[in-house]
Design brief:
By secondary structure, the chain is an all-alpha fold. The chain folds into two domains: about 160 residues, no CATH class; about 160 residues, no CATH class. It is built from 17 helices and no strands. The longest helix is centred in the last third of the chain and has 23 residues. The radius of gyration is 24 Å and the shape is elongated.
């Protein structure tokens, strides 16, 4: 397991742990606490909410102990949301203003410590509300992979709510697509694929997953590591949807290159135990999806499973992508994959 994955797991364990009882008061002005009990309306009420949020954001950014400041920040957000006398109308207004102000803070304060950005992202995730989607999208662009992971994980948790809200769905899919195409962490990409696994798969969702898959294949072509199995999630979801022929052609071309690269890496002496296991998982789901999309049958995963030698596996991949003078299943129309899937 890589150092990055271990680090991300530590952050996740902390992020999902129950908040300890802090004995805190909600704080804020009398006007803020009076407003919590009724329905906010108008700019003046927004200013009252903004005052509370800005003060807490300042405390988070300026805390001498970033971890402790993060715990306190998250706990106070929770107190505001869960207080028995806080109205649902106020919660909605509070989350709308938190979305705006947290998004600005994440965009304008790149000098924040990672711990502060993590705490803010956790606080947004705790809301479990599509009203904070924009701010989570900002967090998903952070330089630190653990912040991006927590943001995408929170977005993934909102997947079902977004699926039932057409007004939010387009932006949700675009945010995840843009992040996934640029993302360098396989752990984050895997969570992005999971977040995009929406229902039966709309055209936009399938396009987003296909675009991320193509970008990942380009990264592999350029020498990126093969130590994660993010594409397992994508392939498993794509097996459950019915992509059009045009979309299937693009997906097949990416899968052909991925399969060829995986086999080449697997057959080489430089691949490690963890990496070989990840490749085996990826090859298994990749070939299964190729079979579904093309109605053809492959042999690569079977040869791997029975411990076949490298030469056998290399011959099996030629069956899919071909070699000079020996066309493969995917070189013919409608797939038209270049010979060898370069």
């Amino acid at each position: 397991m890589t150092r990055l994955i271990r680090l991300l797991l530590v952050w996740v364990i902390v992020a999902i742990a129950p908040l300890a009882a802090t004995g805190q008061e909600i704080g804020g002005s009398p006007a803020f606490n009076e407003l919590r009990r009724r329905t906010p309306s108008g700019a003046s009420d927004d200013e009252i909410i903004d005052g509370w949020i800005k003060a807490e954001l300042a405390g988070l950014a300026g805390g001498k102990d970033p971890r402790e400041a993060g715990v306190q920040f998250r706990a106070k957000l929770d107190l505001v949301r869960t207080a028995s006398d806080t109205s649902q109308f106020f919660r909605d207004a509070f989350h709308r203003r938190l979305d705006v102000l947290a998004g600005k803070a994440l965009e304008e304060k790149p000098a924040w410590s990672v711990a502060a950005a993590v705490a803010l992202t956790r606080g947004l995730g705790d809301a479990n509300d599509i009203l904070v989607l924009d701010a989570l999208g900002r967090a998903a662009q952070h330089d630190a992979p653990q912040v991006r992971y927590l943001a995408v994980r929170a977005l993934s948790g909102l997947r079902d709510k977004v699926a039932g809200n057409p007004a939010a769905l387009d932006g949700f899919v675009k945010t995840l697509r843009d992040r996934g195409v640029a993302e360098s962490s396989g752990v984050v990409v895997e969570e992005i694929y999971r977040a995009l696994s929406i229902g039966g798969g709309t055209d936009d969702v399938i396009d987003a997953i296909a675009a991320i898959l193509a970008a990942r294949v380009d990264q592999y072509r350029q020498g990126a590591g093969f130590g994660d199995s993010a594409e397992v999630q994508a392939c498993q979801f794509l097996q459950t949807v019915n992509a059009t022929r045009d979309k299937s052609v693009g997906i097949v071309k990416s899968l052909a290159v991925l399969l060829r690269l995986d086999v080449g890496r697997y057959a080489g002496e430089e691949s490690s135990g963890d990496e070989r296991f990840a490749i085996e998982l990826r090859v298994h789901t990749c070939e299964m999806l190729l079979e579904k999309l093309t109605s053809e049958s492959g042999k690569v995963r079977g040869t791997m499973q029975r411990g076949g030698i490298s030469a056998e596996i290399q011959l099996d991949i030629i069956g899919w992508v071909g070699a000079e003078g020996d066309p493969g299943l995917l070189n013919k129309p409608p797939w038209n994959v270049a010979v060898g899937a370069p």
